[in-house]
Amino acid sequence: MIADLVLRNANVLTLDPDRPRASALSVWRGRILSVGDETMVLGDAGPGTRILDLGGATVLPGFDDAHCHPLGFGLSLEWVDVSPDVAPTLDRLLARLSEAARSSPPDRWLLARGYDDTRLDVRRHPTRWELDRVTGDRPTLVIRTCGHMLVANSAALARAGITSTTPDPEGGRIVRDATGEPTGLLQERAQDLVRTLVPEPTVADLERALRRAGERFLALGITSVTEAGVGRPEELQAYQNLRQRGELPVRSRVMLYTDQLLDPAERLGLRSGFGDDWLRIGPFKLLQDGAGGARTAAMSIPYPDEPDNYGIAVYTQERLDEISGRVARLRAQLAAHAIGDRAIDMVLTAFERALPQQPNPDHRWRIEHCGMLRPDLLDRMARLGVIAVPQPGFVHYLGDAYRRNFSEEWLALAYPTRAWLERRIPVAFSSDTPVIPPDPWVGIRAAVLRRTRTGEPLGPAQRIGVAEAIRLYTAGGAYAHFEEDRKGRIAPGYLADLVAVDRDPLEVDPEELPTIRTLLTVVDGRVAWEA
Question: Which CATH class is domain 1-62+488-531?
Answer without folding.
Answer: mainly beta
